Amino acid sequence: MRTFTRLSLIAGVAVFAQAAFATINYNVLTATVAYNNGDTNNLTVDQNGNSITFTSIPPVGVGDGFWTGNQHAAATVTIIYTVTSDKALTGLDLIFTGSATGAAAVNYTELVENWNENSGSGTVLASISGSQKGGGLSGGTDGGFEAENFMDFGGSVFSYKVKKTFTLLDFDSNPSNSAATLNLVEQNAVPEPASMGALAIGALGLLARRRRK
Question: Which domains does the chain show, CATH number per domain?
Fold first, then answer.
């Protein structure tokens, strides 16, 4: 590869990296766990660039092995936060990990609003819901999982509000037969220039291949 082409590719990568990174401010309003027996726990929050991650020590869990005085048969994780960015955002990526066995499940819902600082709310940008089930429930499979969902805003915004709920349930009357855990919840904001940067990198790569011929 010629020096000019290599430099072009390096410059392209730098442009893409700059375009794909936004200065994002997260304001976490709620990040809590509430169990059916009255136990509560706060989640640990970590922000790294476009990403915000929520974890719990000990892990959020119901069913077999999750005792604190009384058996945890249900738990609700509530996460609410607002986002402001210096670049337009077009969507966010939801990733969460955990496990489900027997007649236990992790249900989830998420609502994203076009947040307005003055009114405190706005129009709905995107929403999603679903369930990760153990093998004792219809359509379920025992074991660990890593779920990922991309939420497209259908346009560009500079601020939004996220309302996210995870509900862990053990439907088995014998709690030693099933369990569900939620280990990590991660969200990655997607800035508008990222797709254009990706196209630019692709074009430079095509140019490099043509020059080698």
Answer: 23-192 (2.60.120)
